[in-house]
Design a protein that fits this description.
The longest helix is centred in the C-terminal third of the chain and has 27 residues, at 654-680. By secondary structure, the chain is α+β, with helices and mostly antiparallel strands. Strand 8 and strand 9 (145-150) form a beta hairpin. Helix 12 packs parallel to helix 14, helix 18 (486-493) packs parallel to helix 20 (519-539) and helix 25 (587-607) crosses helix 30. Among the domains are: 2-233, Aldehyde Ferredoxin Oxidoreductase,  A, domain 1 (4-Layer Sandwich), CATH 3.60.9; 265-476, Aldehyde Ferredoxin Oxidoreductase Protein, subunit A, domain 2 (Orthogonal Bundle). The strands form 4 sheets. Strands 1-9-8-13-10-11-12 form a 7-stranded mixed beta sheet. This is Aldehyde ferredoxin oxidoreductase, tungsten cofactor-binding domain protein.
């Protein structure tokens, strides 16, 4: 590969989880810079997503768009990232302005990139500018230098380029595990759904594995900058690489959780055998599995994609952790899978996943209950660099538009895109991956923009598409049916960045267990859980070891919301943070750490022209039935819903019942919005108050200026 630029830096020992500096690279002019991490930055932004947001805030203008050169990709792990004693400690977060939401987005991934970046001497990597040609950025943590190479690859798809770069930069087979590659693919160029793949080398399988920072279009930004790959190499990582304040606490806390996983995982969620697809049958049982663009939550063929099917397809008996020391081992894979379509037809590959979200999005939601089809679609989505969640929800929208007669074969260039049309839907994925088809390129814009194009270009009724298009703030809904849980409406549509389940999953707590009876209860849950979950993104941890394994006596010792918090595991995280950093935070201060970043990000959205009440849109499909077939599939249930709401449904047609329920639930939505905004310390328009900024210690002049610029006296709550 042709070397275009090189920069050498001084080695830096990690102190209590921090390198104390961040790496800036401008791939447009190929300049490099070291930036200090101040104590205020650690105190207020902690790491990971917090560092990413702060660096991005300083880098962009109020008018910056996703494809402007000053937009950045910022990747950061956090102070706990890379510890080897506790499961799920290899996560990093990528922050950027999204082509889908046109505001800040952050997306997490496993793999080795976050830890190896930090142990190479950097708390964050900040990439700005646009290259004039495809380039590969190489961070050499062994020789303390950063290099930019001209990419020699014609095929920049993820599997091809990742395999080649592990081979190129490693001295031996064993050495390949000291390397991590960030890649995407051609589909990230041709759609707004581009994902980032972050690798780890599986020595047992002798192949690199891919974990996705899938959501928000980070891969699309990556390719817009003409990045072909980012590579990091760092040898000699060990249990003390974070130089923690008290390694004995890490060992003791980790051993406790390892024992819980060993003793309880088979009784609870079987993460070590099936990973997240253990949810497939649970969601179907409770009418939460999205079927046919979220019209239904259950399907008679769902048993064909239950976890027992995938347990047989996943290779068993291999410790599938995506970072050292993760005994949860949920990164399942299908080995020796022979591809039946596409450019790699006939090749036997290892397929990472599918995860639950992919099984639902590229399965039930588009009417396909064929596990091998789902696996193939999963592989090619990763290979082309396309987020499987947005892809699945986007295809489901297209299928419903086709079945409603808004689209036809003339429009789709010969494809019959009905629910369950396996061959034609697979061909559409390949067309998106190749970028050679006009209709496929429209689909790749995402549902928010598809609605406008379908209306303007093909005469599709915009009002109907608004009802059935499952997106919020410009991003597609992840794969749970939210319509029967008021709290989950908030968990999806009162979020910072759109309907992604990383903020709050409250369906069981709200609807099944009846633990959130009032709007104030729901608002409290929508304060605590989004902030608690955000904390993982600050420190570099995976969420799954928090509540996908629980102490055996959790529901005996604790009740209601407290049990859902899994208090013993919350205390684990407090202990881990203090043991690494030497600080002495409490579980209450943990939430405040997150609240600071949560509110800072909300102001950031406001700065970019979003971040107010009108941006918290919710489609009617998300709150209840839109068409008679949805009602009639659960007629008795919905009739009872009307009765419980005090609505007399006698003599009403199904269409009239639907309208009555929609009116009632929309009034509930407005009450929920008010309650949540009040609890979060925001005004009626969803803007954090200056008092909230002061309480959290983020009343920086430029932050306060944004809030004051957009706040009006009439938006204040009445005393």
């Amino acid at each position: 590969m042709k070397l275009l630029a090189e920069w050498k830096y001084e080695p830096k020992k990690i102190e209590r989880g921090y390198a104390g500096r961040t790496l800036y690279v401008n791939i447009g002019d190929r300049s490099f810079k070291e930036k200090p991490v101040t104590e205020d930055m650690k105190e207020k932004f902690v790491g990971g997503r917090g560092f990413g947001l702060k660096l991005l805030w300083d880098a962009v203008k109020d008018t910056t768009k996703w494809n402007d050169p000053e937009n950045e990709l910022v990747i950061s792990g956090g102070p706990l990232c890379g510890i080897t004693q506790y499961p799920g400690s290899g996560k990093c977060y990528t922050v950027f302005i999204s082509p889908l939401t046109e505001q800040t987005y952050d997306s997490n991934a496993g793999g080795y990139f976050g830890p190896l970046l930090k142990f190479s001497g950097w708390d964050a990597l900040e990439v700005q500018g646009k290259s004039d040609r495809d380039v590969i950025l190489f961070i050499d943590g062994d020789n303390n230098k950063v290099e930019v190479y001209e990419s020699p690859f014609e095929d920049i798809n993820a599997v091809t380029i990742t395999e080649a770069l592990h081979e190129y930069f490693a001295d031996s087979e064993e050495d390949k595990r000291n390397i991590s590659v960030v890649s995407t693919g051609k589909g990230a160029e041709t759609t707004n759904w581009g994902c980032l793949n972050m690798s780890f080398y599986d020595l047992r399988r002798k192949t690199p594995r891919l974990k996705q920072a899938g959501r928000g279009g980070g891969g699309t930004v990556f390719r817009d900058k003409k990045l072909a790959a980012i590579v990091v190499r760092k040898r000699g990582v060990g249990p003390a690489s974070n130089n923690p304040a008290d390694i004995s606490v890490l060992q003791r806390t980790g051993l406790k959780l390892h024992k819980e996983i060993k003793d309880l995982d088979d009784q609870q969620n079987k993460m070590r055998k099936v990973g997240t697809p253990h949810l497939n049958e649970i969601m179907n049982e409770y009418h939460l599995l999205p079927v046919h663009n979220y019209k239904f939550g259950q399907h008679p063929e769902a048993s064909k994609i239950h976890s027992k099917i995938f347990e047989k397809l996943f290779t068993q008996g291999i410790p599938d952790g995506c970072w050292y020391g993760c005994s949860m081992a949920c990164a399942k894979a299908v080995d020796g899978f022979e591809l039946k379509t596409g450019p790699l037809k006939g090749k036997k590959v290892t397929v990472d996943g599918p995860e639950y979200e992919t099984c639902a999005g590229l399965g039930s939601n588009i009417g396909i209950f064929d596990p091998e089809w789902i696996i193939e679609a999963n592989f090619y989505a990763d290979h082309y660099g396309i987020d499987t969640i947005s892809l699945g929800t986007g295809l489901a929208f297209v299928c419903e538009c086709y079945e409603l007669g808004f689209l036809n074969k003339d429009i789709t260039n010969g494809l019959e895109l009905k629910f369950g049309s396996k061959d034609d839907l697979m061909e559409l994925i390949h067309r998106m991956g190749r970028g050679d088809d006009k209709f496929a390129s429209i689909v790749g814009l995402g549902i928010h923009k598809m609605k406008k194009v379908f209306a303007e270009k093909y005469g599709a009724p915009f009002d109907v598409m608004e009802k059935i298009g499952m997106e919020g703030q410009g991003i597609e809904v992840s794969e749970y049916v939210p319509k029967e849980s008021v709290a989950q409406w908030g968990g999806y549509f009162l979020t910072l960045k759109g309907p992604q389940h990383d903020e709050a999953w409250l369906i069981f707590m709200d609807r099944v267990n009846k633990q959130l009876p009032t709007f104030e209860d729901k608002a409290e849950a929508l304060h605590y859980f989004p902030n608690f979950r955000l904390w993982f993104s600050l420190v570099g941890l995976c969420k799954l070891p928090w509540n996908d394994i629980e102490p055996a006596d959790n529901v005996i010792k604790y009740k209601g919301i407290e049990a859902a918090k899994v208090p013993e595991h919350v205390q684990n995280y407090v202990d881990l943070f203090n043991a690494v950093t030497g600080k002495n935070i409490t579980k209450e201060e943990l939430i405040v750490q997150s609240e600071r970043v949560y509110n800072f990000q909300r102001v950031f959205q406001l700065r970019l022209g979003k971040g107010t009440r009108r941006n918290h849109n919710i489609p009617l499909r998300a709150i209840g039935p839109v068409f008679p077939e949805e009602w009639e599939a659960r007629a008795e249930y919905y009739d009872n819903e009307l009765k419980a709401a005090g609505i007399d449904s006698q003599g009403l047609t199904t269409e009239e019942k639907i309208r009555k329920l929609q009116e009632y639930r929309l009034s509930q939505w407005e009450q929920l919005v008010d309650a949540v905004y009040k609890r979060r310390g925001w005004n009626k328009n969803g803007i954090p108050t200056v008092e909230t900024l002061k309480r959290l210690g983020i009343d920086y002049p430029d932050v306060v200026e944004v809030v004051r610029k957009h706040s009006k006296p009439e938006d204040n709550w009445e005393e």
